[in-house]
């Protein structure tokens, strides 16, 4: 490939990444992603045959994530998450430490049942409502806010379907969701537990010993407080009206979500694609809501992140262009011999490499690039799959070192600013540096110890 083509490709990639992170004039991140892809396609760096292959790779995971967020929108519309905001405070029974634990548990569950980006959009406003309802001081808000973003993002590691970055490379390395979970669940839970303990140790002086309780746990109480100054939920197109919860509908929808989540691990073995299961779940919730509340699909059509498919496709084309310039050959020559030596080297090298790369240019393109690198190394299937899981560990945990590392952290900072809470990048780094490297290291060690039991 000519030198000017290589320079052109790297320039487009750098500008695409810059504009995704910067988002001037508030542009959607999918615009620079697809613009870069179009420029690379026009220049012939990525041929049409690659375009078709890329679309096959990203369409399924993207549709799965979009369908999951649609389910979130439906649940939000019936008051599930606003109900959670009040009841999580009541559950703490006046203890700031218990509230801290419940916030982390809530964020974990939301990511497990939905996905990390959806969890951020759901739990961050809930946490904001909580800290405003309790009239916490600025420094007392930080433990809950940071716990929210770190746990919600790290919790996408245990099961593959909780993060689009986890899903895209599964087929390329011969993994399904069950085998992924077999590799990742135990070490990731050890890592998440470590992260929780580190966060508690870091913030224990700032966590209030005693907090107020809310006697009236109705949804009207929360919404009346919200109307006094807090902004509406980011998934909401307009201010919510006061409403009570339809408990029958509430229970039915929760049951459906649990069944759909379980189906991800059962039905694919019978040939049912994951995205079909996700779409089915979204459609069922929409239909049940319409039957019960006579609410149509306008809110879903307006609020669903349809741009995710465009964003993932554009980023994959951009990263694939780097592969076509030969950058993967450079990294293969750099790491191949060491990675092939043993599984410990393979996991630590790929995990740390993707962590560094993610904090420089976001985890989605980093996972894409890392997957292309390891699949071109000619690794045996065991080393290939171990390396891929380590890549995901670096992507879901190591990437949290910088706000640039994940889309979830960028969304978190956006939601905070929207609600008048400003956390500087320096403050973010000070917290992340004290918890993320240790969490990554412990998770990789746990992963290697776990491999001794399952391989």
From TrEMBL:
Q: Report the GO molecular function annotations.
A: arsenite transmembrane transporter activity
Q: Where in the cell is it found?
A: Cell membrane
A single GO BP term for this record reads:
response to arsenic-containing substance
Recorded topology in the membrane: Multi-pass membrane protein
Q: Which InterPro entries match?
A: Arsenical_pump_ArsB
What do the Gene Ontology cellular component annotations say?
A: plasma membrane
List all membrane-crossing ranges.
6-22, 34-55, 61-84, 96-114, 120-136, 143-164, 184-203, 248-266, 272-292, 304-322, 342-360, 397-416, 428-453
User: Which keywords annotate this record?
Assistant: Arsenical resistance, Cell membrane, Membrane, Transmembrane, Transmembrane helix
Q: Which PANTHER family does the annotation name?
A: ARSENICAL PUMP MEMBRANE PROTEIN-RELATED (PTHR43302:SF6), TRANSPORTER ARSB-RELATED (PTHR43302)
Family named by the database record: Belongs to the ArsB family.
The identity of this protein, by name, is Arsenic transporter
Organism placement in taxonomy = Bacteria, Bacillati, Bacillota, Bacilli, Bacillales
